[in-house]
Specification:
- The structure is a single chain.
- With 462 residues, this protein is an alpha+beta fold.
- It has three domains: 5-66 and 295-309, no CATH class; 88-250; 313-461, 2-Layer Sandwich (Yope Regulator, Chain: A).
- The protein is built from 13 helices and twelve strands.
- β3 (154-161), α7 (171-183) and β4 (190-196) form a beta-alpha-beta unit.
- α3 packs antiparallel against α10 (253-289), α6 (110-119) packs antiparallel against α9 and α9 packs antiparallel against α10.
- The longest helix is centred in the middle third of the chain and has 37 residues, at 253-289.
- The radius of gyration is 32 Å and the shape is elongated.
């Protein structure tokens, strides 16, 4: 996604200028000279900064974020603080345990079948109890050997490079020769799988040349080479295993698979971030050469301005949603109005950019002289928090029996624990990405009308 950085930076620059001018005005009010010791301290971090000077650097950096898709998950926390990344032999032992039909995990051949379906579905290899899985034997990370009298013998060799170990010269081709000699498997029934963390791992040219030469040697002796990765093959295999959930899994096996899946995801994200940071450092080096390198105070000021811009943009999105809902309700002569716990009386807005939308705002629709139905929204620090509610009107009271019935039927919450004047339910479907979509606006309008009609009918009966 391309961002209009020149426009964004102009807005941020204007915001920074306003902050600077406000700080100077404050000094004037309290009669402090900006050139005095105290004055210089108060404005030292508020110099006029032109973020547009390093706009090209920001645009380049944003491209890296889009490309590498670095995204932290809450499941990363244990690996960041408690559990370190095992070495490659331990990863091989993990995988070998999962796919070995003879282990006591209760999965039988299921996980081995799923693995072969994922990494090489075109081979259509026979998987049964004649498959022997070994790990870290004879320098092979993982080997799967099937020998029988049905002519369907095969050998799979998995060379695990999850932590980026250096490739030794003719490493895999030596393993192929070992298996051919030791297990008497025909060359064309030996399959070598080269397994780095991600398919995007790009070793240096010398390392790449060794891998390509090894691959060529394997293929020249009529065996087969497959490039796979934890990101594109092992992670999908773990997801398939977790979604299948065979009833024979031993207790705790699902947890083992989930834990290993989360570890792999963490390592992939960590590698992406490492690669992205390497690109950012190159961009910084280039910016320095072009005289566009920012100082740290400029970046910190930019972050502050961007945070303020984000908050204002969120406020305007909430304002637009509320105003568009009100517009549709007005067309149906339902007399909607705005109110807020932050301000007294009814409120009116001319624009979604009104600063009062920074606060909690309710859009109310009268039901009768006693009651209102409402829709409101605010920001919860991460996303939009929106709700639908039923409220008393002025000093009037909705009969307690009706309120109790609504609370029980719709599982509503009481405002400040007091069910006599406001009960509400949160809406989890509305967020900043969809809040001004036509479908969202229509949904809010329809629900408010439905709530109004339901409460009106109950009040008439009562």
């Amino acid at each position: 996604m391309s961002h209009p950085f020149p426009i964004i930076l102009d807005v941020l620059y204007a915001a920074g200028e306003m902050c600077f001018e406000e700080r100077l005005s404050a000094l004037s009010v309290i009669s402090i000279d900006r050139n005095s010791s105290i004055g210089s301290i108060l404005v030292a971090d508020q110099q006029k900064l032109d973020f547009r000077r390093f706009g090209r650097l920001l645009e380049t950096t944003d491209g890296f974020f889009t490309s590498y898709k670095v995204q932290r998950s809450c499941s990363d926390w244990p690996f960041e603080h408690f559990w370190t990344n095992p070495d490659e032999p331990k990863h091989s032992m993990f995988l070998g345990y999962f796919i070995n039909p003879k282990e006591d995990h209760g999965c039988g051949i299921k996980l081995l079948e799923l693995l072969l379906e994922t990494i090489a579905p075109q081979l259509n290899l026979s998987v049964d109890d004649q498959c022997e899985v070994e790990c870290e034997m004879g320098r092979l990370d993982i080997s799967i050997i099937r020998k029988s009298k049905d002519g369907k013998d095969f050998a799979l060799i998995i060379e695990n490079k999850i932590n980026g170990a250096k490739h030794r010269e003719k490493q895999v081709s030596r393993y192929v020769k070992l298996v051919r000699t030791r297990d008497d498997i025909p060359c064309d029934r030996i399959y070598a799988f080269y397994l780095p963390l991600t398919g995007a791992d790009n070793p240096d040219p010398q390392e790449r040349a060794k891998i390509d030469a090894d691959k060529q040697d394997v293929q020249q002796c009529q065996s087969h080479w497959f490039d796979i990765s934890f990101e594109e093959h092992i992670l999908p295999w773990l997801r398939k295993a977790l979604s299948s959930k065979p009833g024979s899994f031993e207790e705790g096996m699902i947890s083992n698979l989930r834990h290993y899946r989360d570890l792999v995801k963490f390592l992939i994200n960590k590698q992406r971030k490492h690669n992205m940071n390497a690109q950012i450092l190159k961009a910084l080096e280039k910016a320095k050469e072009n005289g566009e390198l920012p100082v740290l105070s400029e970046v910190e000021s930019l972050i502050t301005s961007a945070t303020d811009l984000k908050a204002c943009l969120k406020s305007s999105l909430r304002g637009k949603l509320l105003m568009e809902v009100k517009s549709l309700l007005d067309k149906q002569n339902l007399n909607p109005f705005f109110c807020s716990s932050e301000f007294l009386g009814e409120m009116s807005f001319d624009s979604e950019f009104d600063p009062r939308f920074e606060h909690e705002v309710n859009l109310c629709v009268p039901v009768d002289a006693k009651a209102l139905v409402c829709f409101g929204c605010c920001d919860d620090g991460k996303n939009m928090f929106s709700w639908f509610g039923y409220s008393k009107k002025g000093d009037q009271m909705i009969p307690a029996e009706i309120i109790a019935d609504l609370v029980e039927k719709h599982q509503l919450n009481a405002k400040n624990g007091d069910e006599s004047w406001y009960v509400w339910e949160r809406d989890n479907k509305i967020n900043y990405d969809n809040c001004i979509d036509e479908a969202t606006v229509k949904m809010v309008v329809e629900k408010l009308i439905e709530m109004k009609d339901e409460l009106s009918d109950r009040l008439k009966i009562f």
